[in-house]
Amino acid sequence: MHSSEPVPEDTDKLLTAPPPSVDTSLQRIVSDGVSNAEIPGTVIEIVTPDWRWSHAAGYASISPVIPAETGMHFFIASVTKPFVSVAILQLAEEGKLALDDPIDSYLPVDIVKAIPKSDEITIRQLLDHTSGIADYDEISLILEAYENPGYIVSYEQGMWDSLHAGPLYDPEMGYTYSNVNYILLTLIIDRVSGTTYEEYIKEHILDPLGMKNTSVHRTNRLPQPYMHAIEDLEGDGGLMDFSNLYKQYDRGSGDIVSTTADLNVFHKALVSGMLISPSSRGGMMTISPQSEKSVDMGPLGSGSQGYGLGYIITSLDEPANLTLSGHTGGYPGASTFWYYLAEEDTYLTLHANSAMRAAAVHEEILLPLLLFLTDNGPAGS
User: Fold this and answer.
1) Closest by alpha carbon to 244, among 261, 267, 269, 227?
2) Which domain holds residue 225?
């Protein structure tokens, strides 16, 4: 199921470009969207059963001016979490752990002692954010790294800040999205896999899938070419470039660099059963009751959304009747949307180099693309 041997050649590499009318419509949606969302630029890849479309619009950098290009690398931020979830589920399938095991069986003693009820919190509750463990102040860590570009802010720093603050509630008594849950999951991978989290991801996911443009980020330089992570974080009109920072503080929660094409390869392998069994993916798709909420996506319809095992599932009713599964990621100067549209059997990865404008990207680019792909928008009618 998940050996280190390369998988067969991906058949979607044989897909052609979409018909000219579709290409024109998609380019118009994205071009208008970049302008309306007021972002520097974006890179996108969409893979349907019939065609593959890669596109870039706007700029990868404002100063110096660098046009956005397909194939550019970027921080995927919290889209890292599905990679960690897949690793944990692979280890569960091998019998090296069970999702309902308490975390005190796997974590170092000093960490166990710092987590109240660590004998009750389970691996599953780390995966679906129902552990009650608080998050760290990520922006303060990012600014510390930004102000000291040669300094490595370790994952232990944020983790211990969180654990010393104490739990938010008893396990399974609520839902709180916390990066610290996924830092702890990497420590469990270290313990049971016989290697490190970083090497495990490479050997059991990236290498078998041929994801040569994806890596767990452990330098302070993004691989060329890349989308600059640029943001006016302080609101004074000056753009700050967060591209060249060490990302160790986000170990397992947001430390992977990739491309739109590689992320679609990963998603297709996940959905098709190359990485984990159908029952394991079913577990990923099972949302916790604590996380479920109502959502309204305007012309696409309304429905419900919740968090599963490193996976966000959105189910919309009329008119789209659409199930979106995947994850989003945000980091100063970077927003990533990573989705599988089940009813359309379509994969969509979109990255924009702004986090503060993520809602505008969702409204002005992602939503019109989804309307087009589901034949519910003016451009697709």
Assistant:
1) 227
2) 11-380
pTM here? 0.95
Which positions ≥6 away from 34 have C-beta within 8 Å?
Answer: 41, 42, 57, 58, 365
CATH of the domain at 318: 3.40.710.10
Task: Decide if 285 is inside a domain.
Answer: yes
- Cα of 296 vs its chain's centroid, Å: 22
* Nearest-10 Cα torsion for 157, 163, 166, 169: 120
- The verdict on whether omega for the bond into residue 319 sits within 30 degrees of 0, i.e. cis, is yes
- Is 6 among the domain residues? no
Please give the mean pLDDT across all residues of the chain. Answer: 94
| Structural domain total, the chain | 1
- The encoded tokens of residue 344 equal 């359309």
Residue 119: Cβ within 10 Å count: 11
∠ CA 277-280-281, nearest 5°, is 90
Residue 1 belongs to a domain: no
- Separation of alpha carbons 82 and 138, rounded Å: 19
**pLDDT surpassing 60 at residue 6:** no
Integer Cα distance of 373 and 38 in angstroms: 23
What is the C-alpha separation between 180 and 162, in angstroms, rounded? Answer: 7
Is residue 4 domain-resident? Answer: no
Report the largest interatomic distance among the alpha carbons of the chain, rounded to a whole angstrom: 61
Give tens-digit pLDDT for 63-119.
999 999 999 999 999 999 999 999 999 999 999 999 999 999 999 999 999 999 999
